[in-house]
Amino acid sequence: MSSHGKQQKNKRFGHLTLSTSGPQETSLTGNALLRTPYFNKGSAFTKEERDTFKLHGLLPANIQTLDEQVKRAYAQYSSRPNNLAKNIFMTSLKEQNEVLYYRLILDHLTEMFPVIYTPTEGEAIADYSKIFRRPEGCFLNIEDSDRVADDIKQWGNAEDIDLIVVSDGQQILGIGDQGVGAILISIAKLVIYTLCAGIHPARTLPVVLDCGTDNKELLNDELYLGIRKERVYGEKYEKFIDKFVQAARKHYPRAYIHFEDFGLNNARRILDKYTPEIACFNDDVQGTGCVTLAAVMAAFKVNGITWDEARFVMFGSGSAGTGIADQIKDAITQNTGISKEEAGRQIWCVDKPGLLLQGKKNQLTSAQIRYARDDKEWEGKEHGDLLSVVKEVKPHVLIGTSTKPGAFTEDVVREMAKHVDRPVIFPLSNPTKLHEAKPQDLYNWTDGKVLVATGSPFPPVKYNGKDYDISECNNSVTFPGIGLGAVLSRTRLMTPALLVAAIQALAFAAPVLSDSGTGLLPDVEDVREISVQIAKNVIKKAVEDGLAQEKDIPTNDADLEEWIREQMWEAEYRPLKLVGEHEANAHASGKAGTASGQRKAKFEHG
């Protein structure tokens, strides 16, 4: 996965700011060095480093390897009594030694992913004020909005931050409004970016926008750390969001902004407002859409359906459902050349009241209105339930984001299979208890002809003596690579064309297309290589469309891949080079990013 202890700079690309070969410069010595997680090696500091950086007397004498440290850390992790305790242990480890933290996860990725991310991270977020030890990340609150520009400057200079993840905590991981605890979802997303795409962890910034909370339990909790007021909406909220965006854009002009877990009524509107102005992304709206569309593309390669004929039914029309619909619409446009308005006519959206109709537009969100059908089309036709819509539309693709368990009934599935040789059915609601159908049932009801992807992990399905892999539509195989492409190209905008380029790279990696399996999506364990391919497509499209601001990007595919890999951070210890304070930039002096040793020293006791 990496080359251990690279001593020499990459001859071709070692001069780049984000190069990962050669030594790291630092002006820190002694305890200041040990307190800075992105430099700290603990017991792995070599004898020469202990001499140079005045570490004798601060560490036990035995010098250990990273592998030995991982073995000890894993034993400590395994001794914790439950997943939340393990999550808290990992947070503590991250605050001490970032290389060890990430290497431990990478060595046990399948086991630890649910602990450092969903579902356990949801527990940690809900208990944030109870388990709080020390602050990590940038806390901006709506009552001090005049301070936003000054507060955000504390994390480095203009060139020190590549990626910002920001949340207002209104709709967290299916557990609702969590107020200031949303800082942990911003942190968790950045961890995924580093694990899956090699984004440098010391060059990222997690942000929470504390706008109050409508969570009564938090409002009544004397330990709650956020603003103990009901959530602010309206003009004051809009101005606060804009102050953050403008301050981030001004102080970190090269940073890519990722919006996360904003409420249904805000997520789409905020994304639409800023997409034409800055390079930004919303995983809830776009990430799910991207990974789902990649699975659809792979399915179409299998069943031969073309984009101009494909009919889609979306069951569930919240931010995820309409986000998927948007990605599908962009793909139809890209692949056929028709207008977005025409492309939208190939998509039927169903929600709790049934098919979305223009006559009910006063009850619909702005995102839903785009897919509302003309009432005249459905005069005299049943449209109040999913089965009626499937009978009329005869879709090639049925996608569920409804959180309505069992909604894809045997009647619905068999009706769909009457009209389509290889129906594409994706029950994407999660967790598992909320899925619209079980994959085994889908195979049974379609005589094994169905093409399936799900929103939660499922074991392989057995049908007629053969095993079929069930791909999980896991956003973690998509958004990190998109972010890597954005960061390395310094694209001015994240356009639909760039997202379609990313989706094509993911679809191309589907095991079912290479006879390496039956899944419509690659496994998360292969995600770093997938991220390289996604980033390559994003960068090439950004260059082609005149959006890339980075200079001297290679044009040859092989050179571009080497250029990308050289800039992907790896969980390996690099040699350290001592420089004088006058030579040290913010990173070298331990002042940049959330892992700043100086900043942490001030907050040892929370």
Automatic annotation (TrEMBL):
Residues 1-27, 587-606 are annotated as: Disordered. Residues 1-14 have a biased composition (Basic residues). It comes from the Eukaryota. Residues 17-27 have a biased composition (Polar residues). The keyword GTP-binding does not apply. The active site is at Y117 (proton donor), K189 (proton acceptor). This is Malic enzyme.
